[in-house]
Amino acid sequence: MTHFDPWSAEFIAHPYDAYAELREQAPVRYFEPTGQWLISRHQDVSSLLRDRRLGRTYTHRFSHEEFGRTPPDPAHEPFHTLNDNGLLDLEAPDHTRIRRLVSKAFTPRMVQALRPTVARLAEDLVTGLVEEGGGDLIKAVAEPLPVAVIAEMLGVPAADRGLLRPWSAAITGMYELNPTPAAAERAVAASIEFSDYLRELIRERRAAPGPDLVSALIAAHEEGDRLSEQEMISTCVLLLNAGHEATVNTTGNGWWALLRNPDQLALLRSDVERHLPSAIEELMRYDTPLQLFERWVLEPVEVAGVRIPRGAEVALLFGSANRDPERFADPDQLDVTRADNPHLSFGAGLHFCLGAPLARLELAESFGALLRHAPELALVREPTWQPGYVIRGLNELLVTT
Asked: How far lies 394's CA from each of 169, 245, 384, in Å?
């Protein structure tokens, strides 16, 4: 079992053969370089996402010493304060309380109210790409759309929106396996700057509320309970980081998949309104933007006959689970009409992605606009992949229109 190598450019470009080997030969395998148990089958990944014997954190039940873990570097405290107060890394009862309060502000109605804005932004970005005769689809469409949408939601002034993407990219660098000291330093700096920016934005909204998410988070309460300032800051950062990284990479990875499967692109173009919803789900399954998601083992568990002890960390391989032939027919084939598609790209259980409806809306509008306005979209050259494995996406996608 030598083919799982998340720091190899060749593996990042095509991890799926290694995943097949894991599923067939070692569906639960200890990976020494990261000290994690790799879980590769759909049934096991899906089950563990819902298993309360595992958690995104352990500090709600154990100290670092009790859990057999080394406390985080004190120099990284600004990152951990930001990260550890967000929904992604909390467990009940804190997760339950904060998610309930955030859900009062970030409602399905708010997401649907954004549809005209998302549609307008997508149309403008795609029109710009077409007028230029092509370019880098990621920089022209995929990246600016979700950043603009979250900026609209938060009420970030247009002049400040260029700050958001670099902050998010620096912070999410800490989610990679064994991040470097330089990556940690960038994440800490971005955490401080982004937190300070949002603290000032919250202060302004307290004085003058508006029709934005920050104002709604300030107003959200239940039986006298409200979000703390840090919880609001962490929630806003999570919505940006999780939302834009997933949407950017689903767009880039998805168009690369369509362009190298011209029969499926032609089928999608033959009836966009009919096939687009299933196509978006299929593109998220086929080349998921989040390849790995981690959990701590709070109580011993047995997976596929292997006992995993308390204190261990499991690495749930979403990319492998989404290509498991035990769950998906012809999993290595792109099928934009696939109906039975329980992919795990949004997670499952307690931590199912709160922003899934917004991500689907953004993807529908951007793919729809490109399919309508760029019917001759063609690839200039084969793209290369960014070095990150956990959050997996292309460097660029050069196209002509």
From this structure: 14, 12, 6
Question: Does the structure show a pLDDT above 80 at 393?
Answer: yes
C-alpha–C-alpha distance, residues 225 and 203, integer Å: 19
Chain mean pLDDT for the chain: 95
pLDDT tens for each residue of 65-110: 999 999 999 999 999 999 999 999 999 999 999 999 999 998 888 8
**DSSP letters of 34-69?**
TTEEEE--HHHHHHHHT-TTEES-STTT--TTTTT-
Confidence of residue 346 (pLDDT cuts 50, 70, 90): very high
Cα–Cα distances (Å) from 25 to 1, 178, 321, in that order, read 8, 25, 15
Tell whether the torsion through CA atoms of 197, 202, 208 and 209 is positive or negative: positive
Q: Which two tokens stand for residue 91?
A: 């467990």
- Beta strand residue intervals within 27-166, DSSP E: 28-31, 36-39, 54-55, 134-136
CB 8, CB 22: distance < 8 Å: no
156: in domain:
yes
249 pLDDT above the threshold of 70? yes
SS (H, E, C) 276-323: HHHHHHHHHHHCCCECEEEEEECCCEEECCEEECCCCEEEEEHHHHCC
Report d(CA 288, CA 363) in Å as an integer.
13
Expressed as residue numbers, the domain containing 198 is 9-400
Is residue 2 domain-resident? no
25-52 exposure pattern, b = at least 16 Cβ within 10 A, e = fewer: ebbbbebeeeebbbbbbbebbbbbbebe
**CATH number of the domain within which 205 lies:** 1.10.630.10
Number of domains observed in the structure of the chain: 1
